[in-house]
Amino acid sequence: MSDAYDRNLVESESSTYQRLAASIVGVGILAFAFALAALFDLTAIDATFVGLSLSNLLGVGTTLVGLGVVGLGAVSYVGYVETTPDRSAGLVPAVLFGLLWFCVAGLVVSQTFGFGALVWLPAALLVGAGAAGVAIFPREDIGSTLPAGAFALLVGLVFLTNVIGPDWAWSPTDFSATFTPKIVVPFLTVLAVLVASWAAGKAYDDFGARGRQTGAYMLIALNALGILSVLVILVAFVVSKGIGPLFEGFSVGASGIDWPFVQNGNQLTNDVNGVFPAIVGTFWLVVGSVIMAVPLAVGAAVFLTEYAEEGRFTQVVELATNGLWSTPSIVFGLFGYAFLVPRLGNSTSLLSGIFVLGFMLIPLVLITSREAINAVPDEYRDASAALGVSQWQTIKSVVVPAAMPGVITGVILGVGRIAGETAPILLVMSGSPFPSKRQAPNVLDISFSFTSSFPFVDASLISQEALLNSASALPYQLYAIITAGVGQSEAFGWGTTLVLLLVVLSFYAVGIASRAYFRNKLRS
Amino acid sequence: MAESSLKQSFDTFRAAEDIDASALLAGAVGVVFLLTALTSFVLRLGLEVPAIVGFVVVLGYGWYAHQGLTAKAVTFLMTVSTVLILGMITVFLVLESLHAFRLMGVNMLVGMDEPVTVFGVTVLPGLGNFWQPSSATYSLVPAMWGTFVTTLIATAVAAPLGVACALFLAEIAPNWAREIVKPGIEILAGIPSIVYGFIGFTVLNTYVFQNFQTPSQGSFFLVGGVIGVMALPTVVSVAEDSLDTVPDSMKDGALALGSTDWQTMTSITLPAAFSGVSAAVLLGVGRAIGETMAATVILGNTVGLPQPLYDVFGNNVTLTTLIASQYGDAGETQLSALFAAGVVLFVTVLFLSLTSLRIEAKLKQELSGD
Q1: A436 and A366 share one domain
Q2: Interface of A with B in 189-218 (CB under 8 A)
Q3: CB-based contact (8 Å) between A512 and chain B?
Q4: Which residues of B touch A302 (CB under 8 A)?
Q5: Are residues A167 and A306 in the same domain?
Q6: Contact A327 B79 (CB under 8 A)
Q7: Nearest Cα residue in chain A from B290
Q8: What is the DSSP string of A402-461?
Q9: Exposed, middle or buried: residue A475 (CB in 10 Å: 0-12, 13-18, 19+)?
């Protein structure tokens, strides 16, 4: 929402009712945290705290939350506190509550009591419809708290009475899996806490339009936090696992830095095996595909924005760009395997990898460059044209330089994307799964000499052999470790993962930061 | 008649672009060289190098004599090349898969191992097997089912969470929170799929194996969840873009009537951007369908259908993992069958992406007024 509409005109003191609602959410958060701890193996499900097993403890928590939420609704309903509920909780909560209670009743009747579909289906439908009815027909304060609170209460009681306790297990006949309390207890706790906290959040702001907003914002903010924590946990986990192998044998001495994991290849004689060939391979892949794709993509972007008129042709190009953007990477790999590999030396090669990743890079750069060139204000072009400068001169010396920051950002982000691609290079480039240092592609081969035969000079800049031979790359190296069965080389795998993640994420970090920098500069 | 009008329009084009005879000749020669190089590369005639050298020479002359015109022509050729690449991908995929399609016919897409009977009438004779290179039997049904199941799970994860996060970024978050979450989402998009695969293979597979006591390591359930997380950033950023296209004036109207921000979102912003948000979900679905590496290393890749069909803990194969796990030791026919899997994948994803493109364009048009 635009910031101009800050309308918190009335700041009221928080009432006892609000404090009660907040403390219910607080208890919920506590239970939530314990549930996550159990889920992530930080504590065992049958561990005891203050004389209670964890599942009982979670039961106490959810029971409290459930009772509290039902209480909040009841207090508001009898008019003990002044709230502003609507006539009904609304259709969306009703449908969701109906579904929730349908599942609860269906599972209990069919699994706990073992009835067939003829019994459980009507029973579940009845209960589900009942829950939906409770949400729709009474006033909002009852409609949104009772089904939620009752669910939390039920979950809590089930845990407290050890109906689902540490020794419980459920193997549904149709699934090849068994649900153990370690998964089910935290899952049900989290679900109950979320549902009940939503109701408590509504109660906090006296139901009605404002209450609904508070409840919804709470869940949405929690969701964003959850997504962010997935990222943080993922990166932190890889760093914690990979930092050891990455720096094994690392030393800074008189002869310079000795960093075996980065400087070595794979060899029996090595103390520490490293990923040097993969790093070199990834480097040349990135350089090659940038050289191939960026001029092409930027040129196309220039044509589309500066020369072409909107019409059939630009539409087709747009379709093609979007098609290329969304084409799965394995399809690019198949294409390279069928088209490039037979034509480039008939074996997997670095050059094929460069081509395929270049093809993948084109749409990424094209789309961002087009946006960047489009964002150049028309005044620039007009001013240049008014000086009598030709269109091409204008593009060359005004438009493209002005769009450069955006183009570069797009290139960096695109490179980050392709540097981590595995599927295409698996098909068109991969060779030895654990290359030694000598197998690192040596692309630069600068030599110059005079010879006696035509054309009398023998100069070379790039080694054809290196380009036409298979090479490794960081993502492929990681895949090779997995197919080799991990086992012994798990530490090596984590080290490789960390290097790959560092390479890719630093491209992203630089790209995002430079974009933010140029945007701010543009705005000021 | 038609010829003369063609000539006429060409003449106007020439006049408009100020193309004199030497430029025309150079352009024609350049195009001939380029076409020769391309044809030679495709048909393996071995003429690429001289043709490219010729093109570069012509290019040099054009740059020297008619820089503006050359620049325009070159950028035009670059634009055409993007279309050409997509065209070549289509052509080569289809060409390579023709052999398998000819061999299996419609059974490639619908063939079952057991005969299918409806009320005692056999509607589809069984192949005896889904996928057996030794008897040249190939059916994509198990792989398509696997892709369907994993994509369904992934969408169930990515769509609601992604749209909620987009709403958070576009409408709810205070500035400081947006500055943190938005780059975070973008970085999440950057994590390579093989990294998810490695974590899935070493950590999550074991976790699911122990705590769900599945018969083997790897399951659709886990793959769907992981792919869902991977598709999440796509949904978030595209949905956020389309929420941003809803003009402030529409929201102001609701706010002026005294609605809360949340009411404005649910009754104005979300309905107005609904098509854009669904386009975002479609793109996310496309990403999930095409996801390869994480699924390949997590799944067991045995070709078959889970029993029963809806057993989400099945440990079978998807279209992408079929290709990635079998291309290495595939014979000619099997390879062609894998290309057929690629065609199915390509067509599905292309369809999803173009549909979402159309939806987005329509939304922009609608919201820009008129």
Answers
A1: yes
A2: 209-210, 212-213, 216-217
A3: yes
A4: 75
A5: no
A6: no
A7: A328
A8: HHHHHHHHHHHHHHHHHHT--HHHHHHT---SS--GGGS---EEEEEEE-SSTTSEEEEE
A9: buried
Domain contains A436: yes
CB contact under 8 A, A177 and B214: yes
* Residue B233 clears pLDDT 70, i.e. is over it: yes
Given CB atoms, is B323 within the 8 Å cutoff of chain A? Answer: yes
CB–CB contact A330 B259 (8 Å): no
Please give the residue of chain B at the shortest CA–CA distance from A295: B78
Q: What is the pLDDT of residues B8-56, one digit of tens each?
A: 877 777 777 777 788 888 888 888 988 988 888 888 888 888 888 889 9
Q: Which residues of A touch B151 (CB under 8 A)?
A: none
3-state helix/strand/coil string of B123-184: EECCCCCCEEHHHCEECCHHHHHHHHHHHHHHHHHHHHHHHHHHHHHHHHCCHHHHHHHHHH
> The domain containing residue A170 runs over which residues?
13-88+138-235
Judge if A316 and A202 occupy the same domain: no
Same domain, A175 and A321: no
CA distance to A280, A281, A350, A365, A477, per residue, from A442 (Å): 8, 9, 11, 28, 18
At residue A8, the pLDDT reads 53
Overall domain count for chain A: 2
Q: Is residue A245 part of a domain?
A: no
User: B209 and chain A: CB distance < 8 Å anywhere?
Assistant: no
Q: Are residues A489 and A417 in the same domain?
A: yes
* Contact A323/B at CB under 8 A: yes
In A, minimum Cα distance to B312 occurs at A175
Q: What is the pLDDT of residues A364-391, one digit of tens each?
A: 999 999 989 988 888 989 999 899 888 8
Same domain? For A309 and A217 the reply is no
CA distance A474 to A290: 17
Q: What is the ipTM of this complex?
A: 0.91
Residue A254 domain-assigned (yes or no) = no
A231 closest CB neighbour out of B187, B255, B349: B187
Position B2 scores a pLDDT of 58
Question: If we measure between CA atoms, which residue out of B98, B97, B197, B80 comes closest to residue A331?
Answer: B97
A329 touching chain B per CB within 8 A: yes
Domain ranges of chain B: 2-103, 140-367
Residue B156 pLDDT > 90: yes
Statement to judge: residues A292 and A439 lie in one domain: yes
Structural domain includes residue A261: no
Average per-residue pLDDT for chain A:
87
Residues A224 and A369 in one domain: no
Residue B24 in contact with partner chain A when CB distance is under 8 A: no
Can you give the C-alpha Rg of chain A in angstroms?
31
Superfamily of domain B140-367: MetI-like (1.10.3720.10)
- For CA atoms B107, B113, B118, B123, give the dihedral sign: positive
Cα of first residue to Cα of last residue in chain B, in angstroms, is 41
Question: What mean pLDDT is predicted for residues A356-364?
Answer: 94
What CA–CA distance (Å, rounded) separates B239 from B282?
10
| Nearest by CB: A217 against B190, B262, B263 | B262
